[in-house]
Amino acid sequence: MAAEKNPDGVRSLTIGEVARRSGVPISTLxxxxxxxxxxxxxxxxxxxxxxxxxLRSIAIIKVAQRxxxxxxxxxxxxxxxxxxxxxxAAQWGEMSSAWxxxxxxxxxxxxxxxxSLDNCIGCGCLSLNDCPLRNPSDTLAQEGPGPRILxxxxxxx
Length: 157
Ligand code: FES
Description:
By secondary structure, this protein is an alpha+beta fold.
């Protein structure tokens, strides 16, 4: 089958080609599209067609996901640029810098968790007075949702 081109003359890919070349399952591509992370057009036969630049977007999504960046953050970052556009080095630099800050914050939180667990490993006391993980009667819920002890610890760093 001859390669299709979109109205701009750019080669377009079927969803199967995108899956094969990106290593991402078709179901995941559908999910990314439903979340607005990638976009397709429809050909005359109402089949999805993606510009070849979608492979670059998918690579960015995969790298970001591997570092634990939430999909909503990935979408927000990619949404600053036109869909299916080729990011410039400066744009990629902006995006990766923001993710670096996010990654550093999560590293600080994990270090705080590790430090809290250092006292607990092999202990098992769950002491109301001494254990940093103990939360009697869920009193910390009054401070708000989430892991309050760990968030407190990461704010000290
Ligand atoms: S279990 Fe003993 S200090 Fe946490």
